[in-house]
Design brief:
9 helices, 20 strands, eight-stranded mixed beta sheet
C-alpha cells in the first residue's frame, strides 16, 4: 500500500503561535519542530514535510500575492506530494480557499486549509484536532489515489468545500459555516465522508495554475439610505474593472431611477456587476420580485447562491480571461469549481 506524502504549508495565523509562559506574549514557533510539539502526528500513516511562506503573515494582510505564493508552493510539490495542508489565519481563510479553488484548475489532490481559534501551545487549544484531522483528510486514499480532489476547509470536526464557506464566529471553535452546501466530511469516532458531495474533476487533465488575479474591483453592500454621491464615487473609481453588489434577500434593491441609471452606465463601460445576497444562506433569484426585475433586464450577473468570498475570488480570476461581456456573464453564472448549486 502506498504511503501518502503530505506537505504542510504554514502561512501564518494563530495556529502557528506559542505563548511565552513568563510574559504571556504570543510568538510564531519554528514549524520544523512541529513533530516535537505534537507527537501524535507520528501515529499518522503518512510522511509529513513542512514548509513556510517566505514571510508568514497575519491573515488580515492576505492579498492575491499571498494566494499566488501558496499556489506556487503547491505547483512545485504537486508531483511529489499526495496532499497539502495549508495553515492559515481564520479571518480570511474563506477568501484564500475560494481563490485557490479557481487558481488550481484541474486539481486532482486535496488542498486542506485549517487553522485555530487558540494557539497550538494553549491548554484548551483547538489547533491539535484541526491539524491532525486535516492531515488525515489529506492522506485519504482510494485505489492508491487521493480520495478528495478539491480545495477544502477543515474546522471543528467538519470538512467543507472551501469556496462554499464563510467565517461566522470570531469566538466559538465552530467558526465556519457552509450554508448552501452540505459538509464533505464529519469527524466523530469515525471520519465519515459524504461521498456524493465530493467534487469530481477530470483527472486526465493536467494541473493548470493561474497566477494572475485582477483586484481592481469594488464590493458594495447596499443599505437603506445609501446615497447617490457615495455610489457614484465608487462606480467612477479609476481603473475599476468589476463590481459585486450585495443586495437584499433574493437579490432585491432600490428601483430609484438614479440607481438603475448608474448601474446601466457602469455596464455600458464594460464593467461587469455581480448580484449576490447579503444573507448568509440562500440564493439570488432575479425577477422573483419586482425590485429585481430591472436588474435582470439591464444585464446584471446573477451570483445565485455563491458566497461573497467566492464571488470576490471568481471575479478577480475571470477578469484576467479577456472574455466578451456575454462570455463573462455566462462564465460567472456557470459553476466552475462547485461554487454554485
Amino acid at each position: 500500500m502506498h504511503t501518502p506524502y503530505i506537505l504542510i504549508i504554514y502561512t501564518g495565523g494563530t495556529i502557528g503561535m506559542i505563548k511565552n509562559p513568563k510574559s504571556g506574549v504570543l510568538k510564531a514557533f519554528n514549524f520544523k519542530n512541529l513533530l516535537n510539539k505534537i507527537p501524535e502526528l507520528q501515529l499518522l500513516e503518512c510522511k509529513i514535510t513542512t514548509t513556510s511562506l517566505k514571510k508568514p503573515i497575519d491573515s488580515s494582510n492576505t492579498n492575491p500575492k499571498t494566494w499566488i505564493e501558496i499556489a506556487e508552493v503547491i505547483e512545485k510539490g504537486y508531483d511529489k506530494y499526495d496532499g497539502f495542508v495549508v495553515l492559515h489565519g481564520s479571518d480570511t481563510m474563506s477568501y484564500t480557499a475560494s481563490a485557490l479553488s479557481f487558481m488550481l484548475e484541474n486539481l486532482a489532490k486535496p488542498v486542506v486549509l485549517t487553522g485555530s481559534q487558540l494557539p497550538i501551545g494553549d491548554l484548551r487549544t483547538d489547533a491539535k484536532e484541526n491539524l491532525i484531522t486535516s492531515i488525515q483528510v489529506a492522506s485519504l486514499q482510494k485505489n492508491n489515489k487521493p480520495y478528495i480532489k478539491e480545495v477544502c476547509l477543515y474546522f471543528e470536526y467538519k470538512l467543507y468545500r472551501g469556496n462554499r464557506t464563510t467565517k461566522i464566529n470570531a469566538e466559538h471553535f465552530e467558526a465556519f459555516a457552509s450554508l448552501n452546501y452540505p459538509e464533505l466530511a464529519e469527524s466523530g469516532v469515525h471520519l465519515k465522508v459524504n461521498d456524493d458531495q465530493l467534487y469530481r474533476p477530470n483527472t486526465r487533465r493536467k494541473l493548470k495554475v493561474h497566477k494572475k488575479m485582477n483586484s481592481n474591483i469594488a464590493l458594495v453592500k447596499l443599505f437603506p439610505g445609501i446615497t447617490k454621491e457615495v455610489l457614484t464615487a465608487t462606480f467612477s473609481a479609476s481603473n475599476l474593472k468589476g463590481v459585486i453588489l450585495e443586495t437584499y434577500g433574493a437579490g432585491n434593491c432600490s428601483t430609484e431611477k438614479w440607481f438603475i441609471n448608474l448601474l446601466k452606465e457602469t455596464l455600458g463601460k464594460g464593467i461587469p456587476i455581480v448580484n449576490v445576497t447579503q444573507c448568509s444562506g440562500g440564493s439570488v433569484s432575479m425577477g422573483l420580485y419586482e425590485t429585481s426585475t430591472q436588474l435582470k433586464k439591464i444585464g446584471i450577473i446573477s451570483g445565485r447562491d455563491i458566497t461573497t468570498e467566492a464571488a470576490v475570488a471568481k471575479l478577480m480570476y475571470l477578469l484576467q480571461s479577456q472574455l466578451s461581456q456575454i462570455e463573462f456573464k455566462n462564465a460567472f453564472e456557470t459553476s466552475l469549481r462547485g461554487e454554485l448549486s
